[in-house]
Amino acid sequence: MASYLAEQLKETGNKHFKNGDYAEAASLYGQAIQKNSSNPLLYTNRANARLKLHQWQDVIDDCLRSIELRRDNMKAFFYLAQAQLELHHPNEALSSALTAYELCTSSPSQTSSAFTIAQLVRRCKIEKWNIRERQRIRQRSDLLAELLEKLEKDRIGELQDIEDKERQGLVGRVESEDRRKEVDEEYAAKMDELRNVFAIADPKNLEKREVPEYLIDDISFEIMHDPVMTKNGHSYERATLVEHLKRSALDPLTRTPLSVNELRPNLALKKACDDFWDHSSGWAYDW
């Protein structure tokens, strides 16, 4: 009886989720959990609703509980990585995202999520790199570190103000989402401009080092040297794809049949890779 009531509550929660009423959906999923606390999928449903509500720590708690109940829960690791990334824990987020990717690419029923999860892995790795870069640059300049810290505090303050207004009902969810995005973009631009000013003064030590996302392989998530293209238009590092095809004759992302003979060099991307490596002065090997 309890399982049946839990399923009914979940279905009602799904309807609210589809309608964008994430708070009510999360509440209904919570009621379902009270009826059947051993169902790992109920925790991932609530975690997804809480993601929409920016309740990052609650998302993490739900995902960890779901994983305890079902270790191969791909969605739990996927949602967990997103929340960890939002809380600025890129190392943990990368580990969770890689686990989600591994579970996704090893299960034929989950292939539709492979590209989305690969994008998340790249985001985690780029954020991990960016944090290392910020630390490196700050160590080079006390003044730059002080100014960047001031900008970050201002950004967090504005985001908190938006959350307070949304909680008080002074602004709607859509408006607050748009405003958060504007604040993040505004402060990212300010920080980039500040770094550029200091980089001009000391280019050898303070130049920002970035890895373009399109140069990252979707199997190893390392920077490519020799990209090849599949018949579906996806590009991978030749060595990692050939090694993958020894274990599975399927495209890692689309899960469609693929053989080594079908691979073609991606000449335009190869040139971009060569240019990047030529101008990275060796630092890219730390990626």
Automatic annotation (TrEMBL):
Pfam families: TPR_11 (PF13414), U-box (PF04564). One of its GO terms (cellular component) is cytoplasm. The keyword Transferase applies. TPR repeats lie at residues 6-39. GO terms for molecular function: peptidyl-prolyl cis-trans isomerase activity; protein-folding chaperone binding; ubiquitin protein ligase activity. Residues 210-283 form the U-box domain. This is U-box-domain-containing protein. GO terms for biological process: cellular response to misfolded protein; positive regulation of proteolysis; proteasome-mediated ubiquitin-dependent protein catabolic process; protein polyubiquitination; protein quality control for misfolded or incompletely synthesized proteins. It comes from the Eukaryota. It comes from Rhizodiscina lignyota. It catalyses: S-ubiquitinyl-[E2 ubiquitin-conjugating enzyme]-L-cysteine + [acceptor protein]-L-lysine = [E2 ubiquitin-conjugating enzyme]-L-cysteine + N(6)-ubiquitinyl-[acceptor protein]-L-lysine. Keywords: Coiled coil, Isomerase, Repeat, Rotamase, TPR repeat, Transferase, Ubl conjugation pathway. Transmembrane segments: none annotated. Residues 134-168 form a coiled coil.
